[in-house]
Amino acid sequence: MALKDMEIGILGYGAQGRAEALNLKRSGIKFRLGLRKDGESWKKAQSEGFEPENFKKVIESSQVLMMNLPDQTQAEVYRNFIQGSAVEYLVFAHGFNTHFKLIPVENTGPEHILIAPKGAASGLISFYGTENALPAVLAFESAKQASIGPQEKSWVEDLALAIGANPKALFWARFKDETICDLFSEQALLCGGVSSLLRRTYEVLTEAGYNPETAYFETLFELKLIVDLIWKEGITGMRARISPTARYGDITRGDRIFDQDLKERMKQVLAEVENGKFAQEFLKESQSDQYKSLAKRQADHPIEVIGARLREKMHSS
């Protein structure tokens, strides 16, 4: 069956749901949008030209249902609204609920599809139809068949393209691959690693008596310039485009800081992701006072305070 002939529903209009809805519309694919009545997302979707409906109506009419709700709420919505329905395929943007069996893969239930764009949802919108369109990891899991059939594979790839993925960068893998690699990279590098490294680097400089403004520009501000080079040219390509002094310091000092002890701690973090400990902790603690206090403490870090002041000064008219 061709994608254009399928009944498609989307649940959720956060960053991911909004990006997918906007791009499906741009791609000429019809769908229905399911949201909680009169919430902020409902109002935002209406303001952007959509006609949202309640979950029940969208689920009852959908053959393919795209789950763009927060990870921690998907299982409850599945139990309350989707389980036992006529939905044939659940499409996820992240493998969390499938891999950790929060939403089971059952003989009597929908088959699970993964279309996971590799980048922020905003990139799906801004890079739509360009050579910089985001790659996507695709996966299939079913209790009814061992592997995806050619017709299903075709419409899944068409759906990935319709939400804005790069036609040259659709990669089939397992739910496990995407889930574990995504969570670990967010914690050890992309989010947790980078933010912690920025705070520590800034602290070392300012605690040694160096000017806070200079420390900010030499850490957080310049990071984008280097990341952009790495993204475009790779690590070696970045090194070829920086000064000889910076290149020498990179090659001779980086591994002194990020040594084998750090690698062992990263392995511990990976193990907590693999064995489900992180998933259990996240579901239990993500709304706790302890977590909110930790987030507040990090938000009040001096690098955040001076960064806000400098950004306002630089961008003021």
Low-confidence stretches: none
Largest sheet properties: 7 strands, mixed
Radius of gyration, whole Å: 22 Å
CATH superfamily of the largest domain: NAD(P)-binding Rossmann-like Domain
CATH architecture of the largest domain: 3-Layer(aba) Sandwich
Q: Helix count?
A: 15
Per the principal axes of the C-alpha atoms, what is the gross shape? globular
Number of strands: 7
User: How many separate domains make up the residues?
Assistant: 2
Strand order of the largest sheet: 2-1-3-4-5-6-7
Beta fraction: 5-15%
What class do helices, strands and sheet pairing give? Answer: alpha/beta
Helical residue percent band: 55-70%
Set down the secondary structure blueprint.
Layout: E1 8-11, H1 15-26, E2 32-34, H2 40-47, H3 55-61, E3 64-67, H4 71-82, E4 89-92, H5 96-99, E5 111-117, H6 121-126, E6 136-141, H7 150-162, E7 170-172, H8 175-190, H9 192-207, H10 212-239, H11 244-257, H12 260-274, H13 277-285, H14 289-299, H15 302-315
Parallel strand pairs: 1-2, 1-3, 3-4, 4-5, 6-7
Antiparallel strand pairs: 5-6
Helix pairs in contact: 8-9, 8-12, 9-10, 10-15
Quick summary:
This protein has 317 residues and is α/β, with parallel strands linked by helices.
Description:
The protein is α/β, with parallel strands linked by helices and 317 residues long. The chain folds into two domains: 171 residues, 3-Layer(aba) Sandwich (Rossmann fold); 126 residues, no CATH class. It contains 15 helices and seven strands. The chain has a seven-stranded mixed β-sheet with strand order 2-1-3-4-5-6-7, with helices on both faces. Helix 1 links the parallel strand 1 and strand 2. Helix 10 crosses helix 15. The chain is globular and about 65 Å long. 28% of the residues are buried.
